[in-house]
Design brief:
By secondary structure, the chain is α+β, with helices and mostly antiparallel strands. Strands 2-1-7-6 form a four-stranded antiparallel β-sheet. It has a three-stranded antiparallel β-sheet with strand order 3-4-5. InterPro entries: NusG_2_sf. This is NusG domain-containing protein. Keywords: Membrane, Transmembrane, Transmembrane helix. Pfam families: NusG_II.
Length: 131
């Protein structure tokens, strides 16, 4: 096995520092603002099925039975997730818990979308991108 030279060690250290800096400056994790009121909007086939406020105290079990299928959405501790679905692949159940405005859970076979929306309009967000 070859012995590392000083230049090799320097390159490794520079790569680790560069990786850390890239992670630090490009980390796009949303910053949650606790003072923003959020709500959960459930739509079936593009039409609003139910709207509920999303707080840490909200605790709901919502059964959605439509001609497209059956789903069960759970809201608790400020998070929303798909507990049950009768769709074939169950991808919507694997999407996990959502809690940030803009997050969504979609069940395509059952034409269901669960989305978290905020009352505050973000001026930094884009409405349209034209190429």
């Amino acid at each position: 096995m070859k012995k590392l030279k000083k230049a090799d060690i320097l390159v490794i250290i520079l790569l680790v520092i560069a990786s850390f800096l890239i992670y630090l400056f490009t980390n796009k994790l949303p910053k949650e603002e606790n003072n923003i009121s959020k709500k959960v909007v459930i739509t079936v086939d593009g039409k609003i099925y139910k709207e509920l406020p999303l707080t840490n105290n909200t605790k709901e079990k919502i059964d959605i039975n439509t001609i497209y299928g059956k789903n069960e959405v759970i809201i608790e501790n400020g998070k929303v997730y798909m507990h049950e679905s009768n769709c074939k692949e169950k991808i919507c159940m694997k999407m996990g818990k959502i809690s940030i405005a803009g997050d969504s859970i979609i069940c395509l076979p059952n034409r269901l979308m669960v989305k978290i929306v905020s009352d505050k309009k973000n001026e930094d967000s884009l409405d349209l991108i034209i190429k």
